[in-house]
Amino acid sequence: MPRNPCYDLLFEPGQIGAARPSIADPFLPRKMAEGREDEIRECIGCNLCVSGDMLDAPIRCTQNPTMGEEWRKDWHPERIPA
Prior knowledge:
Layout: H1 5-10, H2 19-24, H3 28-33, H4 48-51
């Protein structure tokens, strides 16, 4: 059975901790696969995304203000108006 292409991206040495970076940039694997590293929104490790876990608060991200807004109709964070 063929392996998912994201597997190779996420499990190369140095790519194991991809959970928080994927919150900061949901298109991280695609951008890596396409060689668009300069477009990646980087996680700064502030832990705001996990800070609400014990408080039952919604997830938030300082680098991705659209995090948690996926329920909105026609949500496309990759489309930024010029």
